[in-house]
Structure formats: structure tokens, C-alpha cells
Design brief:
The protein has about 130 residues and is mainly α. About 50% of the residues lie in helices and about 10% in strands. It contains 6 helices and 3 strands. The chain has a 3-stranded parallel sheet with strand order 1-2-3, with helices on both faces. Helix 4 links the parallel strand 1 and strand 2. Helix 3 runs parallel beside helix 4.
Length: about 130
């Protein structure tokens, strides 16, 4: 019964939700905005990818994580606004929403994100012909 209802999936981790790590970094490390980078350094495995999301493309914490990802030879994808910011230059694949206003960029990001998820589902879980 259990085997009939379980579904395959892809391993994914949202960086920044480990409150203990965040607290430890804030209390013990003088460098600001390094939480994502520290967490990625510990969690990443060969073959992983990082999707960095920043409306401006200049979120320091996301850019630091992209730098660590590059150093670990992970594939870096960025999801930004039209300008791309620093994050787009760190990415192997830079997806720029065609907007500059934060709310419009975020609205576009929702559609783009869901499109990326659907592409992954088709690639990894579509029935074989």
C-alpha cells in the first residue's frame, strides 16, 4: 500500500530557513549576509545547481551564495529583473524578467518559476514513450 502512494521527487533545499545557523552567524561572525553562502558550502553536492532569486540582482546574500556555488563548480541560475545586477553576471544561465518595478518583477518570477518546475517535471518524471 505505501509503495503505491509514494512519489519520486527531486532533492531541493531552501537556503536561509535554518534559524539556528542564522543566529550563530549573527552572534559569532562579523561578516554580514553570508548565511546562504555558509549553508550552501555545507549542503552542496557535486552535480547540484543553485537558483538565486533577486529582483534587483544585487542582493548581497544571494550573490555570495552564487560565488560559493561557482567555487564548488555548481551550475548557477539567476532569476532577476531586467537589469540583472551582479547576480546575472555570476550565473551560467541568467533569466531576466522584463520589468524594473519590484512588484512587476516578482509577478513575472512566479510564472517563470512555475515554468521551470514544469520543465523539470517533464524532464525527470514524464512517462517514457
Amino acid at each position: 500500500m505505501l509503495g503505491q502512494v509514494l512519489e519520486r521527487g527531486l532533492r531541493g533545499v531552501v537556503l536561509g530557513i535554518n534559524h539556528s545557523l542564522g543566529s550563530a552567524l549573527e552572534n559569532d561572525v562579523p561578516a554580514p549576509a553570508i548565511g546562504y553562502a555558509q549553508e550552501l558550502l555545507v549542503m552542496a553536492r557535486p552535480g547540484d545547481a543553485l537558483l538565486g532569486i533577486s529582483t534587483s540582482g544585487n542582493a548581497r546574500n544571494v550573490c555570495y551564495a552564487a560565488q560559493v556555488a561557482r567555487a564548488l563548480e555548481l551550475t548557477v541560475l539567476s532569476l532577476t529583473g531586467a537589469d540583472g545586477g551582479k547576480l546575472a553576471s555570476l550565473a551560467h544561465i541568467a533569466i531576466r524578467a522584463p520589468a524594473r518595478r519590484t512588484d512587476r518583477v516578482q509577478e513575472a518570477h512566479v510564472s517563470i518559476y512555475h515554468c521551470l518546475c514544469e520543465m523539470l517535471e517533464l524532464r525527470f518524471f514524464a512517462p517514457s514513450p
